[in-house]
């Protein structure tokens, strides 16, 4: 994958990329089994330390991996890369390809991975050409209209004074929804002809409206932006951020809120190609160094990339790194898998 062989440099303030024909990547093994019952605590500390290390963008690969041994039969593979070459969709590509390479190695056979059809640089050229089309103009017009007028600032009740310059210090809360409650949510979605994400968006809107006492709720939403089939197996940063603006009415039923959510989401997804940076440029929101522009809360939804079909007879699961970072005031990260819905609530401290 070209993304993992790419470095970024600049001359006289102008950035450019260098794609190397090959790079070397070390896979250190850290044996934590000697810590006995404290091994998991040591693991969490080490993962947090690693997650706080800074990448040097001028050196490829922009990737750090470590294999931790907790016992003879339990290992944790730590994988960290820079967002400039990677996104959530890329995680699924890496897991699928690692799984095939692992199983081929176990079986003593050649792997069956297809060559990469398109490189990330092809996407950049395609996007540059797209900016000159009528579709690009239409999408810009949509965002200009959708975000016209005064943009509501989400004022949640806080227990500390907001600093004059926004801080990225944060904490996380983890919750898991399973069993009967998850079944009820999924049943409600089927009844309303809505996706689970639409239902979660509706619930977050109601929650934020209640605590901020506002009826104009603006959320940021990351999207994969992978509509072109040729790029679906290309590692790189394709993701974009969409803005979801919802007007709530205190007398609406939940079904009505859900209907509005479906309309808002589908319209936003129909205009997902316009980069968020361009949206900010045309909307020209009032700048405030203490907050993020346009929205102060984000909502993210992902289907889990891990499944028990991966990695042969290995039993697999994921561990979230508790990084002390908050991108916005509040971010709802939902991960939906087979019989579970995990919530990672990231908040600015």
Tell me about this structure.
It contains eight helices and eleven strands. α6 (196-212) crosses α7. The protein is globular. 32% of the residues lie in helices and 23% in strands. β1 (6-11) and β2 (14-19) form a beta hairpin. The protein has a six-stranded mixed β-sheet. Strands 3-4-5 form a three-stranded mixed β-sheet, covered by helices on one side. The protein has a two-stranded antiparallel ribbon with strand order 1-2. The chain has 349 residues and is α/β, with parallel strands linked by helices.
CA gyration radius, whole angstroms? 22 Å
Mean pLDDT: 93
What is the number of E strands? 11
- Main pleated-sheet profile: 6 strands, mixed
* Spatial separation of the terminal alpha carbons: 37 Å
Strand order of the largest sheet: 6-11-10-9-7-8
Summarize the structure.
It is built from eight helices and eleven strands. It is an alpha/beta fold and 349 residues long.
Per-chain topology:
Elements: E1 6-11, E2 14-19, E3 29-31, H1 39-51, E4 63-71, E5 74-81, H2 88-107, H3 120-130, H4 134-146, E6 170-177, H5 179-192, H6 196-212, E7 216-223, E8 240-247, H7 254-269, H8 276-283, E9 297-303, E10 330-337, E11 340-348
Parallel strand pairs: 3-4, 7-9, 9-10
Antiparallel strand pairs: 1-2, 4-5, 6-11, 7-8, 10-11
Helix pairs in contact: 6-7
Keywords:
single chain; 349 residues; alpha/beta; 6-stranded mixed sheet; 3-stranded mixed sheet; 11 strands; 32% helix
